[in-house]
Design a protein that fits this description.
By secondary structure, the protein is an all-alpha fold. It is 78% helix and 0% strand. The protein is built from 26 helices and no strands. The longest helix has 33 residues.
């Protein structure tokens, strides 16, 4: 039996995974943490730029509004990027779509880099919109590309690399934000331009790597290009099993042509897939993970950690996310997907409940804050080693080729809407509920546990058509969505 490393290095698969990662989810991870350290310097820059133009300091409310635009326009750009996934990825293909996202990120990096010398905070806003568009388009294209190059036996591990690169991006954003590195007033524009360097690497290298085999065969009908891509990625071989699987899926697609986003939402035969995708994603986003990532300073301050130690604790969080994501990648093909979901959600809810208790007892003893910090670390580990790692794998497996583009558009829209809403709501939530806001997150995690334990089918080692059949077989009170469709047709 070949090891995973041997399978990845027989061809160019490992190189493609790395190149896709640094131009894909890595960018989203970096942008989610890059603003935390330089935020006071950017607000100072807004003040000085305004004074340079109008010879008077701006009103405090104006600085707040401009800063809010800089933060929120990233989500707006991401939403537009998510809307464009179907159009750009379907028209250009997976490889050219990824190159397109990198070009946009490079342009954004150039605008961000020169904004300081131009004394223009408007350029920062434009750069953030372009960064968001690039991330919104790139995140979905990245996972889709990975799913379409992967042999069935290691599909989970390959698609899970997107979560690893997301964690790497978050860690680098936190690391470069330290005052000893780029987290200084004279270097903030360089810190915000770093992702463009990784995008440049992708633009240079990716044209020499193959297009996704499934896209070449199923959507473009080019068998020779498909076989050539498979051999380039995974080494010499006839790949009869993979070709037969794609032929079967192609026949199913011809019977049911590609759907638009609205058509997919109306289609009862994929209702369970859509419901599963939405519930898993919403639980992940509302479980408290984004809140801890974005507002880690406030969370650890609530836990009683000294202010001067918080940035190093958050750096430790980033390291733990990467280690756990790698471990999850090694585990997912042995354990399957379901145990990672229900086990992760169950342990996350227990961690949050204990964290709430400890935060309320933080003044009773000096060692309580250390336990609270440990519980947050456990919460992050249970997430990255479970639902956080396995989600992209699940989303890429539960839709056949004709439905996948429309599904990723819906997922992208959901992602950026929740990102924007959570960023706006959480500061008020933590003020209103104090530490009890984590009880709300606990209830969300319990909902995820119940759904994935009782209803989620196992997808490990199955073809896309077999997975679709498993979802159609789900019944509640003896009824399924597909049966309801049949009854309506008869009437």
């Amino acid at each position: 039996m070949e090891t995973l490393l041997q399978q990845l290095t027989r061809g160019n698969a490992l190189l493609l995974i790395i190149v896709l990662g640094i131009g894909g989810s890595f960018q989203s991870g970096y942008h989610s943490t890059e603003l935390s350290s330089p935020s006071p310097y950017i607000q100072s820059f807004i003040n000085s730029s305004w004074f340079h133009r109008y010879n008077e300091p701006p009103p405090p409310r104006t600085i707040t509004i401009i800063w809010s635009l800089i933060v929120s326009m990233y989500a707006v750009g991401g939403l537009f990027g998510a809307f464009s996934v179907k159009l750009i990825t379907g028209t250009l293909g997976r490889k050219k779509a990824m190159i397109c996202t990198s070009f946009i990120a490079i342009v954004a990096g150039g605008i961000m880099l020169t904004s300081k010398s131009a004394k223009s905070y408007e350029m920062i806003i434009v750069a953030r919109i372009l960064y968001g568009f690039s991330a919104g388009l790139g995140a979905s294209s990245h996972v889709m590309y990975l799913a379409e190059i992967s042999p069935r036996k290691i599909r989970g591990t390959v698609t899970l690399t997107s979560a690893i690169f997301l964690s790497l991006g978050k860690l680098l954003g936190q690391f470069l934000g330290l005052s000893e590195l780029l987290g200084r007033e004279e270097l903030w524009n360089i810190a915000l331009s770093v992702p463009a360097l990784f995008s440049l690497v992708q633009v240079i290298v990716l044209p020499f790597l193959p297009e996704a085999p499934r896209y070449s065969f199923i959507e473009k009908g080019c068998e020779k290009a498909c076989i050539k891509a498979l051999q380039s990625l995974w080494g010499e071989g006839d790949y009869k099993q993979e070709m037969d699987e794609m032929l079967t899926e192609q026949a199913a697609i011809e019977a049911a042509p590609r759907k638009s986003t609205l058509q997919l939402m109306r289609d009862r035969s994929v209702r369970w897939q859509l419901l599963t995708m939405s519930i898993v994603f919403c639980v992940n986003k509302l479980s408290g993970i984004p809140a801890i990532n974005i507002f880690s300073f406030d969370v650890f301050q609530k836990a009683g950690i000294p202010t001067d130690k918080i940035r190093y604790v958050t750096l430790g969080l980033g390291v733990s996310q990467i280690i756990t994501s790698i471990f999850c990648g090694l585990l997912i093909e042995q354990s399957g997907r379901r145990p990672l979901f229900w086990g992760g959600y169950g342990l996350m809810s227990a961690s949050l409940l204990l964290f709430t208790v400890m935060v309320n007892l933080k003044d009773s003893s000096y060692w309580i804050p250390h336990i609270s910090t440990g519980l947050i670390f456990l919460f992050i580990i249970f997430f990255c080693g479970g639902p956080g790692g396995a989600s992209n794998t699940l989303h890429s497996e539960i839709f056949i080729q004709s439905d996948r583009l429309a599904a990723f558009v819906l997922l992208g829209i959901l992602r950026w809407l929740l990102y924007a809403v959570l960023g706006l709501v959480f500061p008020f939530l933590i003020d209103a509920l104090d530490s009890y806001c984590f009880v709300l997150f606990t209830c969300v995690c319990l909902l995820g546990f119940l759904y994935t334990f009782f209803l989620l089918p196992e997808t490990k080692g199955k073809t896309m058509l077999e997975i679709s059949a498993d979802f159609k077989a789900i019944t509640i009170c003896g009824k399924s969505f597909s049966e309801e469709k049949t009854l309506e047709t008869k009437l």
